[in-house]
Amino acid sequence: MSQTITLLIQMVTQLSATLFLMRFYMRICMVGGNAPLASFIAKVTNPFTRIVSLFLPNIPRVDLAALALALGLLIGQAYATASYQQIDSQGFFPISFLSVFLYAGIKSFQIILDLLFFAILGKIILSWVSPESRNSISLQLLDPLTEWILAPVRRIIPTVGMIDFSPIIVIFALQFFENFVLKQLL
């Protein structure tokens, strides 16, 4: 029973942190509020970010409240998991705040890379479904999220006929970075 509760808490925490990081990433990429997913995430996370933003400085295009909430959730999850697994004989767990904070920062970066991976994958699938017409989902949501990384690769490796290799190269680079660099840090 306690394993089920632990897994449920981890799942809810991870989902909440992902929503806050999606809000943070969409704000940095300047995704318009007309996209249905963007407006849904804004409505769900507004009650929490509005309160936290009162205590943080206002930086244009950066939602520090969403980032702080995501980091706080991931720090809490790491402490809860560590305390559940590594309590010593005196009731303390030997984990420093710095290591938990670094873990939460790296985990946040990994979640953002996963979001970028799925945004590129969604853009690829939408280009196969309707290649002639530019879908409104692609224009409003996926283009701002992915073009900042796809455009430089397109300049280096141009399209061949109708085939754009930049999403494939970026996906390989993201997976390489995540599997060989971030996995070593976590």
* Poorly predicted parts: none
Distance between the termini: 28 Å
Number of helices: 6
- List the secondary-structure elements in sequence, H or E: HHHHHH
What oligomeric state do these chains adopt? single chain
Give an account of the 3D structure:
The structure is a single chain. This protein is mostly helical and 186 residues long. The chain has one domain. It is built from six helices and no strands. Helix 1 crosses helix 2. It starts with a helix and ends with a helix. The model has no long low-confidence stretch (mean pLDDT 84).
Brief write-up:
The chain is an all-alpha fold and 186 residues long.
Can you tag this structure with a few keywords?
186 residues, mainly alpha, globular
Question: Which SSEs are present, and which pair or pack?
Answer:
Elements (H helix, E strand, L loop, with lengths): L1 H27 L7 H17 L11 H22 L11 H33 L6 H21 L9 H20 L1
Helix pairs in contact: 1-2, 1-3, 1-4, 2-3, 3-4, 4-5, 4-6, 5-6
